[in-house]
């Protein structure tokens, strides 16, 4: 009996020990299987040059106003702190391309947080229809006429070997915007016109057309003429492809056509009988017999 009781107690102790061990292992496995949640990409703090954020900054607030110290200077990123990810700063503009505020985006490539800082003290622009050019400059070209309000087409002289034309237009009104190909790429034989548009603050548009005239001068010769102020030489220079090679090609073509026509005329006169045959009866030879 005593032996049976001892066996029962040993079995009970062993059972409790095994149950406790299994419960601990199960609990430990449950905790270790939990995956840590990834932190969101947020902006903890930020500051910019040339102004101040008007509201207290919080990483969970995304819209702010920003007071500029100087309206003509674009603010730059001064300092920042992130929870994670990378920070990208850009500028929000209106249809005319005028800066209206700063946009800061924090992203890790999957999630992102976007913060906007809109300028609060911009001077209200008085719209007008002034869409004229004040001036235009080029890297290697001569504009025959000065820019005028009543003139929309101009002649632009460039050297024969110029392939890239850089254009620097300036609008008369400070709130107007110039648009167009500011780097015009063309091959050596290309003479297509350049179109520059000026968009006024009231969104009216004026186009200026610059007809390209290639002259038979190299860039070095052309630049020397510009340096010397010898604009007459540029204007009076023969257009590119109007020199001796072109004359030879034209004369050769004309002479070739003349020879062809002469050969056709001689062959028609001497080899082909165009006279009508005499009316000879089919039986005239038989009657003669």
Can you walk through the features of this model?
This protein has 289 residues and is an alpha+beta fold. It is 27% helix and 32% strand. The chain is built from 5 helices and 15 strands. The strands form 4 sheets. A 5-stranded mixed beta sheet has the order 2-3-7-6-5, with no helix packed on it. A 5-stranded mixed beta sheet has the order 9-10-15-14-12. Strand 14 and strand 15 (205-215) form a beta hairpin. It starts with a helix and ends with a helix. The relative contact order is 0.09. Residues 18-38 have low confidence and may be disordered.
Keywords:
289 residues, 5-stranded mixed β-sheet, 15 strands
Low-confidence stretches: 18-38
Q: Main beta sheet, described?
A: 5 strands, mixed
Radius of gyration, CA atoms, in whole angstroms: 44 Å
Which series of helices and strands comes N to C? HEEEEEEEEEEEEEEEHHHH
Strand order of the largest sheet: 2-3-7-6-5
Distance between the termini: 171 Å
How does the helix and strand content classify structurally?
Answer: alpha+beta
Taken as a percent bin, the fraction of beta residues is 25-35%
Shape: elongated
Count of separate DSSP helical elements: 5
Mean pLDDT: 79
- What is the number of E strands? 15
Helical content stands at: 25-40%
